[in-house]
Amino acid sequence: MQEEVIFAGFGGQGVLFAGQLLAYTAMDEGKHVTWIPSYGPEMRGGTANCTVVVSDEPIGSPLVSRPSIAVVFNNPSMIKYRDQVKPGGLLVVNISIVEATTRREDITILNIPATETANALGETRLTNMILMGAMLAARPVVSVETLRQTIIERLPKRRQDLLALNLEAITKGVELAQAQLVARA
Amino acid sequence: MTVQLLKGNVAIAEAAVRAGLEAYFGYPITPQTELLEHLSARMVELGRVFVQAESEVAAINMVYGAACTGVRTMTSSSSPGVSLMQEGLSYIAASEVPCVVVDMMRGGPGLGNIQPSQADYFQVTRSAGHGDYHPIVLAPASVQEAIDLTFLAFDLADQYRHVVLLVGDGLIGQMMEPAEMPEMRPIRPRPDWAITGAKGRSKHVITSINLTAEENEAANRRIQARLAVIRAREQRSVEHYIEGAKVLVIGFGTSGRVAQSAVKMAREAGIPVGLFRPVTLWPFPEDRLRALVDDGVEAIVVVEMNAGQMLEDVRLVVGREMPIALHSRLGGAVPLPEDILEDIVAVAQKLGLAGPETVR
After folding, report:
1. Were both Cys, which of A98, B21, B156, B311 would link to B16 (CB 3.0–4.6 Å)?
2. What is the ipTM of this complex?
3. Which residues of chain A lie closer than 8 angstroms to B171, CB-CB?
4. What pLDDT digit, counting tens, does each position of B53-86 carry?
5. What architecture (CATH level 2) is domain B3-233?
6. CB contact under 8 A, A60 and B264
């Protein structure tokens, strides 16, 4: 098993952290994992992305031309990555703010109102956790249960007040994805 | 030891601390600044020396001074900064004092960019400054190897009283991977040659100046004799899928790691291809490469993030007859496994080792 995941969005949307959390969780499951950020010169409000490769075997290239999963947090990321996802792959779209669409029928597409749902939970920064839950519901790169444990163990002390909200956001993401997947089945 | 998720730059910094680094001098530059940032907190916390110098020129000369006093010392930078350090490196090498220098290369020439590059292979392997010598050069391809080679770098620097360069790029420096960090080692005693104040003993002289040709030739002969020992003893390399390989892919650091994915794909398609990844760039692992070539390699694919600099070292080992294809990316671009695979297939097809329909 090897999965290559690209998380992409605006700086400040928790894109890099989502990738790191996936990397920590994969490590906690004893898997091989690499996390690499885009670190080119960017302006404030510009795009940020990271690539996470999770594998049962040692990982060669930490960069991929065609990821198996793309999680796009904003419109520019949707435009950049919608055609790059491998056939048979998964595209998770933050439909709250993404306007661009795709006609691809060879991949699974989840349209998740992540920013709206995060705002409804009272914390817009939960967008990343909602998208992460949705991704894992469709494609168990790691188990949701390990993800919960990893958050519980690794959330910094000064952020413990956000623990319950983070876990709730993941559950919301899972539910939103499952509803779409069931509707299609 | 427990497995932690570590960023390459931070891992090297912490490994240096645990290898007994007593004095760090540096100047920030992307893509290695996290290294300096980590040390700015850790060294102070441990009561050791951390100085953010006013320039790379100052930093390397502070390293020179510290090295003369016999402490484990290092600096870190990236391509343009390492260019500024050339004079100091040469003085350190001539003075035969140990130091470790990390060079996280970026796209050049000039200010270039901050993307991953291997364009300074010649700069690091051929001399590092003026004069007639090679530094020892180590090239990790993963966070774990970066940690292990940091420890090795300090040991080799001490053992040979020589400059050791640990070279990577932004991809190694910025990447996070699970890795194990060895326990803290005690600070080693000062070597007996160190400048520590001559009270009660005869004076030590450490200098890079030898005014007569006779003196300077003798000093050069001494350095060359030591380099000959290093060349004989310290060649290191890693191999993957090497059994029965007729096509040999050669790449170091990031290129070697990316090429490993391509070699795996080619093997799955039935092509007898293996990967040879030099870990020491100087001394180049010529003995092992020669043995592999004598063992039935029919063609070579060199993968580099430069215009084919290591290829020259490969050519010196394998001779004029061996076919060598070059997969080269320049200026901060990183090769992708699929593109390297195309080159491997093309070479294999020429040798009749792969059919026209191999791989897609």
Report:
1. B21
2. 0.94
3. 36, 62-63
4. 999 999 999 999 999 999 999 999 999 999 999 9
5. 3-Layer(aba) Sandwich (3.40)
6. yes
Name the H helices within chain A.
15-28, 75-81, 114-120, 127-138, 144-154, 163-184
Domain ranges in chain B with CATH number 3.40.50.920: 238-350
CA distance B305 to chain A (A): 14
Helix (H, G, I), strand (E, B) or coil at B116: strand
Q: What length does chain B have?
A: 360
* Nearest residue of chain B to residue A25 (CA atoms): B5
Distance of CA B89 to the CA centre of its chain: 15
- The model's pLDDT over A126-165, given as tens digits with 9 standing for 90+, comes to 999 999 999 999 999 999 999 999 999 988 888 888 899 9
- Compute and round to an integer the Cα radius of gyration of chain B: 21
What structural domains does chain A harbor? 2-184 (3.40.920.10)
Q: Name the closest residue on chain B to residue A64, using Cα atoms.
A: B336
Q: Which of A36-40, B112-116, B185-189, B308-312 has the lowest mean pLDDT?
A: A36-40
Q: Is the Cβ–Cβ distance between A45 and A11 less than 8 Å?
A: yes
What is the CATH number assigned to the segment(s) B238-350? 3.40.50.920
Res B360: pLDDT: 54
Single-letter amino acid, residue B171: L
CA of A121 vs chain B CAs: smallest distance (Å): 30
Query: Cis omega before residue B31 (within 30°)?
Result: yes
Residue A110 has which token pair? 């989840």
Q: Tell me, what DSSP letter sits at residue B253?
A: H
Residue B264: both structure tokens together: 């795996």
Q: How confident is the model at residue B174, as a pLDDT?
A: 96
Chain A residues in contact with B174 by the CB 8 A cut-off are 36-37, 39
How deeply is A70 buried, as exposed, middle or buried, from its count of CB atoms within 10 A (0-12, 13-18, 19+)? Answer: buried
